[in-house]
Backbone:
């Protein structure tokens, strides 16, 4: 049994069985398992600008296929995506990012899963949750996966999870930033495509400013 290739997560038949013969889902999950369909892989193969363009085109085609399915099937697929079955382990990438960051700075960095993150109340009842927080210095840090958060001016961007467009997600991200700043916090945001050397250099410069 252990030698049966179809039982391995590295084999396409594994995903065909996992998703009840749905070829679209199986291929998407298989490619993500291989890293073939990841944004980082596209950028590595084609360069930053062209790689992002090709990756976005691929995501649009996938979303078009999604939209052609019955609503109950779309709901089932989205539940799988939320569970992590069809994403590129964004939450894991975020945790890796903050784990590494916490070892490279001299101040306590708080971060965690949803519900445990640092939050700021606005409108008297609603809350914005933030990925990382250096409480001692009042620094808020957001880690954005490019599949779920657009960089400024990428107007043709579409969220891979729910098809939300650039304007909707970008406005929400800017509201989060404004709420943090209005409450006296220093707000920093980094994307998964940012070089780590740039990230740590920027954070250390801000820390120096805060303690000056």
Residues:
């Amino acid at each position: 049994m252990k030698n049966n290739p179809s039982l391995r997560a590295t084999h396409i038949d594994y995903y065909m069985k996992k998703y009840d013969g749905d070829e679209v889902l199986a291929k998407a999950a298989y490619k993500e398992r291989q890293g073939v369909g990841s944004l980082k892989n596209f950028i590595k193969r084609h360069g930053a600008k062209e790689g992002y363009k090709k990756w976005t085109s691929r995501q649009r085609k996938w979303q078009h296929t999604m939209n052609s399915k019955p609503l109950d099937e779309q709901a089932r697929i989205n539940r799988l995506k939320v569970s992590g079955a069809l994403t590129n382990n964004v939450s894991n990438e975020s945790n890796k990012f903050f784990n590494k960051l916490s070892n490279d700075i001299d101040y306590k960095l708080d971060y965690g899963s949803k519900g445990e993150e640092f939050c700021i109340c606005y409108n008297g009842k609603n809350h914005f949750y933030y990925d990382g927080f250096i409480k001692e210095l009042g620094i808020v840090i957001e880690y954005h996966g490019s599949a779920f958060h657009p960089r400024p001016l990428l107007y043709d961007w579409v969220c891979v999870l729910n098809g939300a467009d650039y304007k909707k997600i970008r406005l929400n991200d800017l509201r989060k930033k404004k709420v943090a700043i209005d409450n006296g916090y220093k707000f920093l945001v980094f994307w998964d495509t940012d070089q780590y050397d740039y990230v740590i250099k920027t954070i250390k410069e801000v820390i120096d400013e805060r303690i000056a």
About this structure: The beta strands are 110-111, 118-122, 126-130, 132-134, 139-144, 186-191. Helices lie at 12-18, 23-34, 39-46, 48-67, 71-83, 90-104, 166-182, 196-211.
